[in-house]
Specification:
- The structure is a single chain.
- With 149 residues, this protein is of the alpha+beta class.
- The protein has 2 domains: 63 residues, no CATH class; 62 residues, no CATH class.
- Helix content is 34%, strand content 22%.
- The protein contains 5 helices and 5 strands, in the order H-E-H-E-H-H-E-H-E-E.
- The strands form 2 sheets. Strands 3-5-4 form a 3-stranded antiparallel beta sheet.
- A hairpin with a 2-residue loop joins strand 4 and strand 5.
- The longest helix has 18 residues.
- It is elongated, with a radius of gyration of 16 Å.
Length: 149
């Protein structure tokens, strides 16, 4: 098991759940303080036969709030999206199957461009080993934001 400092350095001192900075100097008992989340996804459990889970940095409150349930990574509050897919599930499908994943719809092309930049940036920290390319596809008066692994 790694130390909080090791996990924090590896994750750039950002919470993997909410993507906000984690202050390494805060107490581990503080809600915004650092904690280590022993994250294991269905994909990783299957691949590793339930070996040691991946350790990720999280705020204490984010980690406690998640508990033993599947994590939910929120979409950015300032993004204008319609029918967004759950980010963790989409990332797991891209890992296991590759191919193309529609992430959401947007009413304007500018909104879709903002979403695409945000989701690629977010995934670069959420799953650094996953390489994705994004595209925006017009259709039916809306814009689809897609990722391809």
């Amino acid at each position: 098991m790694a130390t909080i400092d090791d996990v924090g350095e590896a994750d750039g001192w950002r919470c993997w759940l909410c993507d906000q900075p984690v202050d390494p100097d805060r107490s581990v008992n503080d809600d915004r303080g650092p904690s280590v989340d022993a994250r294991i996804t269905k994909r990783k459990a299957k691949a590793k036969k339930k070996a040691l889970p991946a350790e990720r940095l999280a705020h204490r409150a984010c980690n406690t709030g998640k508990g033993g349930t599947e994590p939910v990574v929120p979409w950015g509050e300032d993004l204008f999206v319609i029918d967004p897919v759950p980010i963790i599930a989409a990332v797991e499908r891209l890992h296991t199957k590759g191919g193309r994943e529609i992430m959401c719809r947007c009413p304007r092309e500018e909104d879709a461009e903002d979403v695409l930049a945000w989701i690629i940036d977010r995934l670069s920290r959420l799953e650094p080993e996953l390489r994705v390319e994004g595209s925006i596809e017009a259709g039916g008066g809306q814009y689809l934001v897609a990722l391809r692994a």
